[in-house]
């Protein structure tokens, strides 16, 4: 039996509860929600599983040592004292990143450098050889987290952020992060039991994440590499077994996922990305201006989209958001419409009252995920039936 150890999954602000639920459903133990992270326990196979299967995680860290720290010299000495030979060969490569919340230290890059020096010096002193730094493809990626006087050293099992799913080769001017897209769809409560639409689909991220959620496809199957594949205890047979067990849990999807964009270049990029993700059977992409469209059929429609904010695109925001409200009201009865925006002033021009508002961040921008319920006929009529 593999032994269980503690891990920390990092996420975006506002997604902690989603990630907590995902971990519980995957089978994690000792699940505990923090701010922008959730800690849990599992074995090596579960570490592989969490990297492959979590939609709202950005990274999976494995803490290996924690101590109080009083100065740079103290930090250096305590890192030097650790048994690095368990994790890295003297001729291997490493990369270090640091996150600092402390009045003792101000520069995270300097702390990363100090950590690297301590590890390299330890190898040189004990073996006569030293590992090199490789920022792109290190054998070991180390995370240093200092909170006031507490320092935690973790191994980064993911490597590149887990939002880099591997299906996206083409992006548009303002692409949405894959983890953000998946989290928005999950917050919207979409369960794959209705048609889904993104009327401003950009490079197709929302459509692809929606299809993977509907079919219960693990989000990171297409990734080229995880950092743990370079670890000394990498077990390819165990990894393949975990991958196979997740694939057995995929399910059928009997509705449509539709994407519109008025830019031909966006439509073509979306089609490329959908093809890369091997989801052409589920996703239909059309060159359409949302403001000139209407809902087809009587069935319930679930809409999630990311309209332009004005930060990178030069448009009249008031008129644009007012147009969104008019189009939804007049042309999309029987629709639950959700969208995210960081243009909080423009929201006032939608002309509809949101039934929900969720506080989030899109990158560093404060944002709101809002929900508008478009009833069949009038709202009053709905209650009089």
TrEMBL record:
SUPFAM superfamilies: S-adenosyl-L-methionine-dependent methyltransferases (SSF53335). SMART domains: THUMP (SM00981). InterPro entries: RlmKL-like_Mtase, RlmKL-like_Mtase_CS, RlmL_1st, SAM-dependent_MTases_sf, THUMP_dom. Keywords: Methyltransferase, RNA-binding, Transferase. It holds the Pfam family RlmL_1st. It comes from the Bacteria. Residues 46-157 form the THUMP domain. This is THUMP domain-containing protein.
